[in-house]
């Protein structure tokens, strides 16, 4: 389980000190506050799991604090304490959602037991949350076949999975998948194949931009022995290999016009002829084509045949870029952290919450592939199981590039994130000499220390 962070809100200085020492000694991270306003500031800036809350407080009643905490931070579990043993307050506190109640004075051993119980409760709660979270939108069987899960819960990705299921039910409707690089076009193409009745035959993926023009025809249609120099034996082309299955044509718009005509004829006639042969071979293949380019523009420019486009485009699936479905970012982050750390055999014990914030502010031009690679690199770079912004160089680099005004650019509005990035930049610039960095930032050395701790900046 992750580190447990506990906030103690009590106006008695001696009590606060004593309980903090005890909690620190027990291996928890303990923060303390004297008044509710101070506690709410801490809550705004820190991820807290458990709050130990005194009933009698300055500024506002402990029960009011409890109610506000439960409303604003429903995941925080609250242990109430009081020196006054007031039964009504106990009942009210329980009603408002406190998990434990302690009359003062109590033994620290009892507090330890209460925290352990609460910890177990939090862990159970997290497991339940994980189970109910629709991590993957496709079934287990399909995951095994396509080699990866399809993660996301945004409207855009749910629609993609829905269309995938619908077109899979048809037998040979051609599909055109559009979307920027790294959005998961091949993943979706595989999904269609393995959801369809063709799943027992081949799914054959061809990257059209990688095949030299001279080999195109023989790769697609095959050749007869002696058909040209180097054709030493009969060879089947991809259409024959994928017979009964699916041929995935990635970057289809990269095909030369001559090949585009030939492909169109195959789609119309459903038969091929190997080079050098006079025999037609009937083929039964579903074509799924994909592109990350603007096909309409290519048609206008005369680079792509419109008749081929209409043939391929009987059914179109568009995968939106990741920046247009930001709700998927936390799910993908969580998923990749778990899967990649497991794959690399590296246990990740803490993740700076700034990472998710920064990702939500980042435009991911390389989409899910970029995010995956970024997380993998960060896990490899991480020390002692802690993932911090320092491990995500690519993530902050575009914003840190020039100067602070670059950070306060068009798409970052998160003040805390900006503060953290500016502090990191000052530290980097001064070779991690704190006094110099503080001077550069125009704050005292103590103020810098407080912020380094607050933002968990690795030095
Ligand atoms: N929704 C998703 N859930 C999980 N993984 C995903 C998702 N979308 C993409 N990926 C992963 O991102 C990587 C890139 O996906 P894929 O190769 O399918 O993209 P693509 O759109 O075909 O890219 P390109 O246009 O560059 O060929 C793969 O590792 C894939 O498993």
Automatic annotation (TrEMBL):
Residues 150-380 form the Sigma-54 factor interaction domain. GO terms for molecular function: ATP binding; sequence-specific DNA binding. It holds the Pfam family HTH_8. The keyword Transcription applies. Keywords: ATP-binding, Nucleotide-binding, Phosphoprotein, Transcription, Transcription regulation. The modification 4-aspartylphosphate is found at residue 54. Residues 5-119 form the Response regulatory domain. SUPFAM superfamilies: CheY-like, Homeodomain-like, P-loop containing nucleoside triphosphate hydrolases. It comes from the Bacteria. GO terms for biological process: phosphorelay signal transduction system; regulation of DNA-templated transcription. SMART domains: AAA, REC. This is Sigma-54-dependent Fis family transcriptional regulator. It comes from Tenuifilum thalassicum.
